[in-house]
């Protein structure tokens, strides 16, 4: 069972998207294992084939998309006239952003099922987390789009099993949960991408895969319940099956840290439930989750005693490996600014390897996988699968804004977003070491759409580029026309955090804002600290003034060159660090969940807009210490570690 290099792509896609057949459902276990291994060989061969010929696959993907969507209202305005070739597409269709397609999306939301954005019928609406500004974006998707997301999911597990054999001998703990869905005025379901996938037929009727046996039944993942109740259920089931757990994860690293801290707080209740074979009524009220959990429980005093002895130890350093002795990997995203959580995970796990089987994905689509998921976090890279979407790339530092009117008057004379005058490259034209802004064209109607990510090419998987997500394009903080982005701030914070190591402290989490209340505005960096060793006697909320001064200075010297220039010239005031009380970032998460953010997709916002009063109020209430540097910038200020202005 192999796919020849010239195999029809539709047949190949079917091999990696199909669900369990009645015949497979009736197989005994040895037959299931045999079918599973054969299927994984097919999927790996498919991955090898399509990444060896990305140019051809990309050309065919664009032809497929334009043949489906070329007559939709959005594309008609650019006069393609049936053309499906790359040259015409690039000449006539402009780069787009969310504001360009929002009028068309609004019509879909209100029940317009004519071919507005794409030729196929829209089946649901996916909503982004709104981490950046608290306002989630809404994206219509088709059935084919959802199937392509399943394709990527079905490729990832064989890639992991190839790199880390033996996972089929144990189980996985994943702290996933669904979020409440809503109905649009037009009757479509709107929900997060994670919720959509967990509720999908593809997930519920997934093929037999012994390396993806979950400690929680599907009923827990699909439960409509408060996030803390779902978390309690996941942890209780993971503790009951502690000897079988080999992999533990969440989509983003902050979600995994949140689960560990929840365990740190509520382990006495969990141990009591295991002792009695019951469910704590105060922690788990939802009856439908209780029914899923009780089948796994029996009174087990020896297990409860063993866990109580472990959890009551003075230090929680290495606790995960002590609770789950066969744990082989933590599976989560630690790329970009999420790398701040690596010390936390290393502390709690005793440096269990951190792997990443999560996709390069966003609400707009699932596009890439980590083909070598067991590499160290700093070497993790994603490979875009050429048969999922059509990709283009704007070289960073070589773009200029040019105004471009719409191609026809059908839109009432609106002027479109800027288009870049720099050359826009294809997937086969990228170079190692260079950074690019990615554009996507999808079957659901996104055309040359900027998702806002900056990628850096770090290698190739076969003939297809592999990249790391460097940062978001969006400016994080600005006081005086300078632009500090996520990577700028991350480099500065991690450099300053090294000064805390002699105190046996680490930065648990951080965010930032601009204080514009004074004549000269300045940056405010919020830190929540945690102890990095069990013998630390340092306070997490009261640092020596000289240490804070040094931290402020290090942050300033590691921001980008425009910040440095403006700071020296007095257009920006000295940076301020505010130390937060433990649990403040948990409060930020609770606020986000209360206003509709998906728990599974939530990421700590790295920059808080000055107009976001509710979040700023939480940070203000959690502030334990304020310190603004009173020093003067060195006139021989050295260059930053890395300037990421674009």
TrEMBL record:
Residues 1-28 are annotated as: Disordered. Residues 488-608 form the GH3 C-terminal domain. InterPro entries: GH3, GH3_C, GH3_M. Residues 382-472 form the GH3 middle domain. PANTHER family: GH3 DOMAIN-CONTAINING PROTEIN (PTHR31901). Belongs to the IAA-amido conjugating enzyme family. This is Uncharacterized protein. It comes from Riccia sorocarpa. The lineage of its organism: Eukaryota, Viridiplantae, Streptophyta, Embryophyta, Marchantiophyta.
